[in-house]
Specification:
318 residues; alpha+beta; Jelly Rolls; Arc Repressor Mutant, subunit A; 2 domains; 7-stranded antiparallel beta sheet; 5-stranded antiparallel beta sheet; 11 helices; 12 strands; globular; HTH_AraC; transcription regulation; transcription; Helix-turn-helix domain-containing protein; Homeodomain-like_sf
Length: 318
């Protein structure tokens, strides 16, 4: 989809821009310096479970408020790369200033304030929370943080975003879906490569052990049965210490492993062109009993796997 305020009726540019941005991301309230003369253009591409957009606009203030969250069916993250000027972001008592050469991660499931005081160009990747939670843990760890996009994997991720945007119009929907998965993988690598992500209110040593255990579990989920002792041995720590790490973080290791399996199954269900049946997806990610998987999935996501797949596919068609 492509939008430009040049197509708006006289005196209705602010309303036009609000509708365009809310359509691309989620409900927001906007404030403009000069609403009637505001200039902006936005282009958005669907990439399977994610989407990529590029927008250029005059200064604007975006607010994500509590009332916007009431009817949201799916929680998402926005990864924003400013090109021309600094952006300001405030969420959950975290105040961030993101300058060109960096990128920012915003949670869509909590109120926030986002603004830029001068004309700006932004690349924005919209990703389901669950896609990142399945790979790098809770968004609480990395939301409202700025990441370096000038070197290493962060720079590669930002470069890939820009290069992808220039070529998407030449790609078919199946190719775009694959590209979307690649962008998510690169984003996760960038997050994992940042030493701040391990800091979670515990000592650096304990945080490092927990992070390493979580990574081992994620990397081995598809290998079938996994016992806590196997995880402890791989991380060079005792079973008792491993269990305490997870209990102190809010759940048992068994609960955490089951959650990761469910998140990976959910991600598979989102893929519009996946040829696998629901039973095959469940088995692939470690559930040997289909009825038990369905029960666990419904308890965690609030609907059956069949309904979830149907909803995801319907959303992609709309």
């Amino acid at each position: 989809m492509e939008y430009s305020t040049l197509a708006a009726e006289a005196g209705k540019r602010g309303a036009y821009w609000t509708e365009a941005v809310c359509s691309a991301y989620f409900p927001l309230t906007m404030q403009f310096k000069a609403e009637d003369t505001f200039n902006g253009r936005l282009k958005n591409w669907e990439l399977g479970i994610t989407s990529l957009s590029h927008l250029e606009s005059d200064a604007v203030h975006y607010s994500r408020r509590q009332n916007h969250l009431v009817e949201e069916m799916e929680n998402s993250l926005l990864i924003t790369i400013p090109e021309w000027n600094e952006v300001s972001f405030l969420q959950s008592n975290r105040d961030a200033r993101c300058v060109p050469g960096h990128f920012l991660i915003e949670r869509g499931d909590a109120p926030y304030e986002f603004s830029y005081g001068s004309a700006n160009s932004l690349w924005v990747l919209k990703v389901p929370n669950s896609a990142l939670r399945a790979r790098v843990g809770s968004p609480d760890r990395f939301a409202a943080l700025c990441f370096n996009a000038q070197q290493g994997v962060g720079a590669y991720f930002a470069d890939k975003i820009r290069a992808t945007g220039r070529r998407l119009d030449e790609m078919t929907p199946p190719v775009r879906e694959v590209v979307g998965q690649q962008l998510i993988d690169l984003l996760c690598l960038t997050i994992q490569d940042d030493p701040r992500i391990m800091a979670s209110g515990m000592t650096s040593v304990r945080a490092a052990h927990l992070f390493r255990a979580e990574q081992f579990i994620r990397q081995n989920l598809a290998k079938g049965s996994m016992q806590p002792q196997e995880v402890a041995d791989a991380c060079g720590i005792s079973l008792r210490y491993l269990q305490r790490l997870f209990t102190d973080s809010g759940r048992s290791i068994y609960e955490w492993i089951r959650e990761q399996r469910l998140l990976m199954c959910d991600e598979e269900l989102r893929r519009n062109r996946s040829p696998q049946s629901i039973a095959e997806i469940a088995y692939r990610w470690g559930f040997s009993d289909h009825s038990q998987f369905s029960k666990n999935y419904r308890h965690y996501f609030g609907r059956s796997p069949t309904q979830a797949r149907s909803d995801y596919r319907e959303r992609l068609r709309s």
